[in-house]
Amino acid sequence: MAEATRIQAKMQGDSADIKMLMTHEMETGLRKDAKTGQIIPAHHIQMINVTVGGKTVLDAQWGGAISKNPFLGIKVKGAKAGDKVVVNWTDNKGDKRTDEGEVK
User: Fold this and answer.
1) DSSP label at 97?
2) pTM over 0.85
3) What are the residue boundaries of the structural domains of the chain, listed by start?
4) What local confidence, expressed as pLDDT, does residue 3 receive?
5) Category of 39 on φ-ψ map: left (φ > 0), alpha (ψ -120 to 50) or beta
6) Residue 59 above 90 pLDDT?
7) Torsion angles phi and psi, residue 42, rounded to 5
8) What CATH number has the domain spanning 6-102?
9) Of 34, 44, 88, 89, whose CB count within 10 A is highest?
10) Which DSSP state fits 30?
């Protein structure tokens, strides 16, 4: 299973600046293994959902074109210090991950 998503969320004026670093191999399904010549099966995050203070602020569908260990940054108006940030993702093999942080 992948390592925890690193979440950094800080208030900047009236918005929260939220940065997330997800650990995932993000294989496209197009590369070949250098030793065997076999195609490496696709394995990438497909759906991501981010909530702040219980409200969905991002709901996205990704494909194989996203880089390994993706970094995502968003700004959220109306957030407040102490709000819980929850990041959920599901990959194309059915693996799921949920991580939490807090707006500082």
Assistant:
1) E
2) yes
3) 6-102
4) 87
5) beta
6) yes
7) -60, 140
8) 2.60.40.10
9) 89
10) -
